[in-house]
Amino acid sequence: MTDLLVALLAVCAVWTGWRVFRVDSMVRATFSLMLSFVAVGAIGVLLSAPYIGVATVFMMAVEMMVMAIFMVMFMMNPAGLNPMSMVHQHRVSIGAGVLAFFGLAAAILVSRPPSNPVAPDADVVTELGLELLGPSMLIFETAGVTLLATMVGAVILSSRQGRFGSADEGSRPPGLTEGGDPAGQRPDGGGGGHHHHGGHG
Amino acid sequence: MIVLLALVVLGTLLVGTLFAAMLDRSHLSIVAFFARQRVETEAPDRLNRDLAPAWYLTLAGAGLSVVPFAPGLALIDSPVGIVIWGSCEALVIVTVFLHGWSPNAPFPLIGAYRYAAIGLPVMLPSMFVLIAAALPAESLSLIAIVESQREIWNVIRQPLGLPLFLIVALAMTLRGPMDYADAADIATGTSAEASGAGRALWQTARLAMLVSVSAIAATVFLGGPLGPLLPGPVWLWLKTAALMALIVLLGNRIARTTPSRMMWILWVVLLPLSFLHLLISGLVAL
Q1: Which end of chain A is more exposed for a tag (fewer CB within 10 A), N or C?
Q2: Same domain, A7 and A78
Q3: Residue B179 phi/psi, 5° resolution?
Q4: Are residues A17 and A71 part of one domain?
């Protein structure tokens, strides 16, 4: 029964993972990826890792929500509703995909996975907590502080207001045509109408 | 026993939703939506539009399934029950976002992005409050959290917990001051283009989530099924009903501020407050 469920969830994870690259919108791709992780989290629960499994679902739901917002924001694709391709650099990615598939397949076929069933009465959550806040504390705290610093840095870099004034001061948006006039208003212009070309004859 | 517990969970959800509709005086409008025609928008994401109300209802059911109805007795007796509820909360944000994103229309989309921006920082106080409640129990299991309240309820031991969690509850049920998704100022936001049975189901799911979040609050802060004389489930139902009424009252009484000011309140006031709450609860639990 558990074997069957794990197999079904694995198929579900692979299928939703494949959908990430076949759908035509950032939001659909993001939440396909979330479903894939949810399936992996459920496999974790079935493999007697309840905390890691459920926390995966929780973390991925929040993370993918953040990702959907940021992807749409940085891709300049209004609301992620414009159809767009989710794949690029075809040759490199096909090569990397084939290499990774054969590498992992070879690793699975060659290695002998350990058979070490968890005792039914083992208190796995407590043991995980002791491990996280015991021998592995330095690793997790280092990773945590690094991630926090990255997040603070990303927010500061993307913030418009800064210590030395507005971040886009003096910047010019790219031209509508190659080497053409910048799109939209010129931020450094004095608001004068005499920069406009055409129209007034 | 599992069948009985499943029936109790479903019955609680059903009767609780009816009670919530009564508190909200929204039963007539929900019934009326069934008779209305469906609205079609241009190029919607049909899968997510049709599934979002069902997801919301499912998450309400999943959240209620970890609640112990008698000491030591829950449908899903998980050692990480409170993390399961946390996952339900996080998935509610995704569901509301998809509900607003899928019709491909301006007002629902504004509601979706507004809610995602407000909902994500609401997750942080929620997690700190729930972790604080797990400290005296020394367990993430809701059954153990109920047991830890035999002497004194968490609402007294951790005074900031319930007020902070009520804000989370208002956000989870898209209600009053935390209703940035379906508010009237953007023409009912994520529901603006919804009509017919889908809209009725969405409204029902909001009420069902009110039952679920109140039951969790009753379990975590009010001792859940603990109480004298009456049997456990009756105590849980009474506490849940009282909290539902309180949440509806707060939702009706407190005004909603602008999203930008709410962002400030969430990050600058409520987040440090929840840190403080965690610190106090940790010191008390030591």
Answers
A1: C
A2: yes
A3: -85, 80
A4: yes
Q: How far is B78 from chain A (nearest CA, A)?
A: 8
Q: Could A28 and B45 be called an inter-chain contact, meaning their C-beta atoms sit closer than 8 Å?
A: yes
pLDDT at A187 over 60: no
Residue numbers of B between 164 and 223 with CB closer than 8 Å to A? none
Same domain, A83 and A4: yes
Q: Are residues A10 and A71 in the same domain?
A: yes
Query: By residue range, what is the domain housing residue B82?
Result: 2-285
Q: What ipTM was predicted for this assembly?
A: 0.83
Domain, as residue range, for A76: 1-87
pLDDT band at A193 (very low <50, low <70, confident <90, very high): very low
Residue A2 and residue A83 share a domain: yes
Q: Do A61 and B97 touch (CB under 8 A)?
A: no
Could B101 and A61 be called an inter-chain contact, meaning their C-beta atoms sit closer than 8 Å? no
Q: Are strands B68-70 and B73-74 parallel, antiparallel or unpaired?
A: antiparallel
DSSP class of residue A194 equals G
Distance CA A6, CA A39 (A): 9
Q: Does a structural domain hold residue A114?
A: no
Mean pLDDT of chain B: 88
Q: Is residue A20 part of a domain?
A: yes
- The sign one gets for the Cα dihedral A44, A49, A54, A59 is negative
B282 — contact with chain A (CB < 8 Å)?
Answer: no
* pLDDT band of A80, cuts 50, 70, 90: low
By Cβ distance, the residue of B87, B94, B123 closest to A54 is B87
Say if residue A73 is in the same domain as residue A132: no
With respect to residue A130, please indicate whether it lies within any of the assigned structural domains. yes
| CATH at residue A34 | 1.20.120.1200
Q: Which of the four pLDDT bands, split at 50, 70 and 90, describes residue B104?
A: confident
Q: What percent of chain B has pLDDT over 90?
A: 36
How many independent structural domains does chain A possess? 2
pTM of the predicted model as reported, rounded to 2 decimal places: 0.83
Segment B139-152, tens digit of pLDDT: 888 988 998 888 88
Q: How many CB pairs under 8 A join A and B?
A: 63
Do A4 and A81 belong to one domain? yes
Flag whether A199 is in a domain: no
Count the domains in chain B: 1
**Residue B94 to residue A58, Cβ atoms within 8 A:** no
